[in-house]
Amino acid sequence: MEYILQPWPWYVSGPLIALVMFLLLYFGRTFGMSSNLRTLCTIGGAGKRVEFFKFDWKSQRWNLVVVAGAIFGGFIAHYFLSNPIDIALSDATVNDLNNLGFSNVGNSLLPPELFSLEAVLSFKGILILAIGGFLVGFGTRYAGGCTSGHAITGLSSLQLPSLIAVIGFFIGGLIMIHLIYPILF
Amino acid sequence: MGKYLKFFFIGIFFGIVLVKSEAVSWYRIYEMFKFQSFHMYGIIGTAVGSGIILLLISKAMNVKTTEGTSLKVPLKDRGFMRYIIGGTIFGLGWALSGACPGPMYILVGTGAFSILIAIAGALLGTYVYGLLKNKLPH
Question: Are A142 and B86 a contacting pair at CB < 8 A?
């Protein structure tokens, strides 16, 4: 139990994520979290206006069930399996974030500077999350997959399109963190 | 309901793994893009490494899915533009919100309800892609 309550090392977590991918393939499905965003748009009625959303969303019900499970899993892990301990970030990261104006770095999963009620009620705070989310949703559908579909499943099956997409993920991420963050914070 | 139960359990397992690995943490994503820790690279690297091995073994043993078909990953369409441009846009959002789609859902379970704003943004982004799909280079 002691080991479960501690943060799990990367060499345990990585293979377990591969197991999730493999189990979904074994049950005749695929590992793709962002597909659910399209399904939710269709359920919301987007198929009436846009061709892209015209499909039988019921065929994707299993994936929505995975999402429901993931939310519940997040709840279990956070409230019952986490001995509240700091995230062991590198000193350089803590130092860089302190310089950007973040405090108590790594004492919680998410920085209160961006995710606290106070932060998201500010104009800048809500825009950061909304625009970040928008780019994720737009980009993942444009690229045909996200971290689960491209970085895990696509690279595991040695597909070139997924390698190109993952290179794109990093181009975007590096631009954001190294060029845009210094302007934002 | 029974046939969905296994997917619910896979989801629970996935949610627990991503929280316990700290991959749902905004801080870890920031640290990854700063190349200041091996943690996230270790997770992705061992996930892909184990994935490759699992898929090679199942191919060699001709493993069948529970649906009776051969176990294999659907091939992505050929192309370049959609992957590099779409991927870059995704990366900008991933780093800005600190979460990709899986962690967005999982964070709701951890009580971080402000992530619902990012999920709403992601739904809108998906919708706008659907609107513009035919006008974009793929």
Answer: yes
Residues of chain B short of pLDDT 50, as ranges, are none
* Contact assessment for residue B22 and residue B28, using Cβ atoms and an 8 Å cutoff: yes
Flag residues of chain A having pLDDT under 50.
none
The secondary structure of B54-85 as a DSSP string is: HHHHHHHTTPBPTTSSB--PPPPPP-SHHHHH
Domain that holds residue B106: 2-37+75-135
In a domain, B84, yes or no: yes
**Measured between CA atoms, how close is B124 to chain A, in angstroms?**
6
Q: What is the pLDDT of residues A122-158, one digit of tens each?
A: 999 999 999 999 999 999 999 999 999 999 999 999 9
Within-domain flag for B43:
no
Is there a domain that residue B54 lies in?
no
Instruction: Please tell me whether the overall predicted TM-score, pTM, comes out greater than 0.95 for this model.
Output: yes
Give contacts of A73 with chain B, Cβ < 8 Å.
11-19, 106, 109
Contacts of A175 (CB under 8 A, 6+ apart): B88, B91, B92
